Amino acid sequence: MNKLVRTVMAGASALAVAAVAFAGSALAARTVVVTPSHTHGWYEADVRPGGAINYINDPSSPYPSGALQLLTDGTTAAKAQYLNKEHGRLSRVRELSYWTKQVSGPPEAAASYQLVVDLNGRGTGGFTTFVYEPYWNGTVVPGTWQQWDVGSGKMWSSSTFAEGTCVVAAGAGGPPFYTLAQLQAMCPKAAVLAFGVNDTTRALLAGASTGNMRLRVDLPRRTRRP
Questions:
Q1: Does residue 131 register a pLDDT over 70?
Q2: CB–CB of 73/79 below 8 Å?
Q3: How far apart are CA 218 and CA 16, in angstroms?
Q4: Is 219's pLDDT higher than 80?
Q5: In whole angstroms, how far apart are CA 48 and each of 51, 81, 223?
Q6: ∠6-65-36 over CA atoms, to 5°?
Q7: E strands within 24-134?
Q8: What does the alpha-carbon distance between residue 135 and residue 66 come to, in Å, rounded to a whole number?
Q9: Mean pLDDT of all residues in the chain?
């Protein structure tokens, strides 16, 4: 049985999670409303001075009428990361995707998708975050909701790791890139620890000015099988 978890913002102060389970031809779905007091696993993983996370109304969002908003000012250390804890093998992941909307910021600015992984499972070391950034995978259109296929796209790693066939080099915001299929083939022991979204004021591109960024996210999701 495959299970699809789709996360969306509903209203000004709620996050909705739609879980769709596929069993043969049968289809079941449910929507779970997540609020600051009932987060259902979502949490502020890393919010630094100059960064903020809130729920806002946005009638144009893919799942009206709300969205998650990530804010960072022009300071170098500003960051706003929102994650959902996950425990499962990377080999079971079948789909990763989400929607973004840039309200303000440089042309390339869009919230990144974060996939936190332990590359060798229960072994020593192996912790890294794979980062999908829209501007490396297409063109960001300011003021417009855009859907991104993370599972088929390019991700860079926050750390370097090498064990057997699992060899990953840190990208520091750029190449080398890895796809989900590549990582599943190279690192059969890898386990997913969390997934979510992030906004940071580090340079988006060489020489780019980040300024104040107001970025929105809706419908982050991942599909996996038992």
A1: yes
A2: no
A3: 10
A4: no
A5: 5, 9, 30
A6: 65
A7: 26-34, 42-48, 51-57, 66-72, 79-89, 93-104, 112-118, 127-132
A8: 24
A9: 78
